[in-house]
């Protein structure tokens, strides 16, 4: 997925060499990442720090960075009885030198929204699906920043064929692709496309995914010959058993309209983020490997089946302790070469792992905003990884 974002204020930086070889214009270069803690969401109106956002709406329009919507637990944590809060406020920022300056706050989406699939395009920021306190939605928004009015213009695109949250989206020119996602019926195995130049036909159905999946990442990249979609990782929630977490990687050839399975991730991963880079590289940042997630699911199933009140309370206490001591998410950066069909761990992000967010590429910088950093806890931080080539 090719998107644009701006750089944010540099507060702290560290240099972490990587060992990624990428072919750019037929030349092999070694890449390095210089990671920076680059900015934060603004404080609340009462002066308290932002609790951060997971599943935020993210993108850039007319050189203005927009971030908002999303969800958090601003009061008690979920195992303490806290309720997930959904938001519709959007924050607009501009660059001033090395600083991120708030242009305006209080911009409002038409409804509260989190876990949408976001993609910056030449037509604006596409925000597809998602969920709020009322459930999942099939609505698709198109956001643009209006410099004259200092406001966001909110347009609509054709509804998705079904309401879906935690889907994956990628753009190729004027064509948007949407894969997977989930709703009350479970995870979806559908792949859709929408022509932004002619939306009259709505979302077109393409050959189904090999598996139903949510919380995956969709990329557009060349396999060395043809342009392809790549669907990486993800998970599927089950009713009577723990969720399936995938290390699967699938390629959809946009020329032949055929799926094929490629080399698997080194481990199962979901809720990660990533982007395509150069001519044949896919990058994966952070993600949930599912160990604590599966243990929590297993305890929840035991709790639901336990009839003895004392035993049930012991299980609840065990689950709460497990979540309170959540170790956080992966710091690892993985790279996949679409030509050699190989994966390599290339870097470790020197900050907390951020999941349920959207990574974007601005120039030679990877930008990763907000996200969840452990069970029930969100981040207000924005990090940048400047890509250096040698």
UniProtKB/TrEMBL annotation:
<dbReference type="InterPro" id="IPR056734">
    <property type="entry name" value="NANM"/>
</dbReference>
<dbReference type="InterPro" id="IPR006652">
    <property type="entry name" value="Kelch_1"/>
</dbReference>
<protein>
    <recommendedName>
        <fullName>Galactose oxidase</fullName>
    </recommendedName>
</protein>
<dbReference type="InterPro" id="IPR015915">
    <property type="entry name" value="Kelch-typ_b-propeller"/>
</dbReference>
<dbReference type="Pfam" id="PF24996">
    <property type="entry name" value="NANM"/>
</dbReference>
């Amino acid at each position: 997925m090719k998107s644009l974002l701006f750089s944010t204020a540099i507060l702290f930086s560290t240099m972490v060499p990587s060992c990624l070889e990428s072919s750019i214009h037929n030349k092999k270069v070694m890449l390095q990442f210089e990671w920076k803690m680059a900015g934060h969401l603004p404080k609340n109106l009462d002066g308290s720090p932002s609790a951060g956002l997971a599943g935020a709406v993210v993108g850039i329009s007319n050189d203005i960075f927009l971030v908002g919507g999303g969800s958090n637990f601003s009061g008690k944590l979920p195992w303490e009885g806290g309720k997930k809060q959904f938001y519709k406020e959007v924050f607009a920022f501009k660059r001033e030198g090395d600083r991120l300056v708030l242009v305006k706050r209080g911009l409002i989406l038409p409804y509260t929204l989190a876990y949408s699939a976001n993609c910056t395009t030449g037509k604006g920021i596409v925000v597809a699906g998602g969920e709020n306190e009322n459930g999942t939605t099939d609505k698709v928004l198109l956001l643009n920043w209006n410099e004259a009015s200092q406001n966001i213009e909110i347009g609509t695109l054709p509804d998705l064929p079904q309401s879906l949250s935690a889907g994956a989206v990628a753009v190729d020119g004027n064509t948007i692709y949407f894969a997977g996602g989930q709703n009350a019926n479970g995870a979806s195995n559908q792949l859709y496309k929408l022509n932004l130049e002619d939306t009259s036909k709505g979302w077109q159905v393409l050959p189904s995914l090999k598996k139903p999946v949510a919380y995956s990442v969709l990329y557009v990249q060349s396999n060395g010959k043809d342009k392809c979609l790549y669907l990486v990782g993800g998970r599927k929630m089950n009713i009577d058993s723990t969720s399936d977490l995938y290390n699967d990687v699938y390629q959809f050839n946009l020329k032949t309209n055929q799926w094929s399975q490629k080399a698997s991730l080194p481990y199962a991963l979901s809720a990660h983020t990533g982007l395509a880079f150069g001519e044949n590289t896919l990058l994966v940042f952070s993600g949930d490997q599912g160990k604590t997630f599966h243990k929590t699911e297993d305890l929840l199933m035991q709790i639901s089946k336990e009839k003895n009140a004392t035993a049930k309370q012991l299980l609840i206490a065990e689950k709460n302790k497990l979540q309170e001591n959540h170790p956080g998410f992966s710091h690892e950066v993985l790279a996949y070469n679409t030509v050699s069909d190989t994966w390599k761990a290339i870097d470790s992000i020197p900050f907390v792992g951020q999941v349920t967010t959207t990574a974007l590429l601005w120039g030679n910088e990877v930008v990763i905003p907000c996200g969840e950093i452990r069970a029930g806890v969100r981040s207000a931080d924005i990090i940048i990884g400047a890509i250096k080539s040698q």
